[in-house]
Design goal:
By secondary structure, the chain is an all-alpha fold. The protein has helices at residues 8-31, 38-45, 52-55, 59-75, 78-82, 88-105, 107-115.
Length: 117
């Protein structure tokens, strides 16, 4: 688990970084990765264009962060569900059911998954 930044500057930097991640996530959900532009990310996050490069080396790097977060969100809790099961067919279906349930429970996350291709 991440620790809370200690100084005001650290907290501000963490907020700005998160704004960039959130903006990127929203843009990917709307239009996909192929159409993603750094200028759009910074516009959506309401930060200066050059600020992006204080946090990420490229748009691919921020996309990697989002992919990792998304995979963790989707797979979180699957292990605890699987360890209670004995039937291989039930074990195999748990991750699929988890992803399908996203469509109803978290439509923005489902759109993000679809558009991460």
């Amino acid at each position: 688990m991440a620790t809370e930044p200690r100084t005001r500057t650290d907290r501000r930097r963490a907020r700005t970084r998160q704004k960039l991640i959130d903006a990127t996530r929203a843009l990917i959900a709307e239009s996909g990765v192929a159409e993603l532009r750094v200028a759009e990310i910074t516009d959506r996050a309401d930060v200066a264009l050059g600020s992006f490069y204080n946090y990420f080396n490229s748009k691919e790097e921020v996309v990697e962060v989002i992919v990792a977060e998304t995979v963790n969100a989707v797979t979180g809790g699957v292990d605890s569900l699987i360890e209670k099961l004995d039937d291989p067919a039930e074990i195999a279906i748990v991750p699929y059911r988890r992803v399908i349930r996203l469509a109803a429970d978290d439509p923005p996350l489902a759109r993000l998954l679809i558009n991460l291709t």
